[in-house]
Specification:
The protein is mostly beta strands and about 140 residues long. The chain has one domain (about 1-135). The chain is about 10% helix and about 40% strand. The chain contains 1 helix and 10 strands. The strands form 2 sheets. The chain has an 8-stranded mixed β-sheet. It has a two-stranded antiparallel ribbon with strand order 6-9. A hairpin with a 5-residue loop joins β7 (about 90-100) and β8.
Amino acid sequence: MAAQATIEGIQELMDAVFKDVANPEDVEIILFSNDEAITVNTVNADLTEITTNGGEKQTLTKASWVAATAADPIVSRYNGATGLVFSFTGALTVFGYAMKGVTSDKIYAAENFGVQTYGNGNSLTLQPLDVNLDLTP
């Protein structure tokens, strides 16, 4: 799985690097239930966050990120060994996921993988969980 980086997410990442922010905000993964076309202009208000039945947001731990690749496209991978698992306790319709700033609510990246329906006892594993930055114009 590869998420589309958004403009506001790239701005936050660049500020963390170039402005030397000592403690950049934590990032969480949300699942969303609406069929939103993900573009560089996608913002939090465009997505309907799932907040029940095991689809609740999960905070990403910074230690689980692998160092970004140096080649184009630049890829950051989260927890490549096991990915991120959502275990559902009831019926849900999921269209995709987004990486959101915990305090800013800015969307760093998102992916719409199409409608998927889950029931009690089902799970969704996001693996690999990659953020790609393609530098090709």
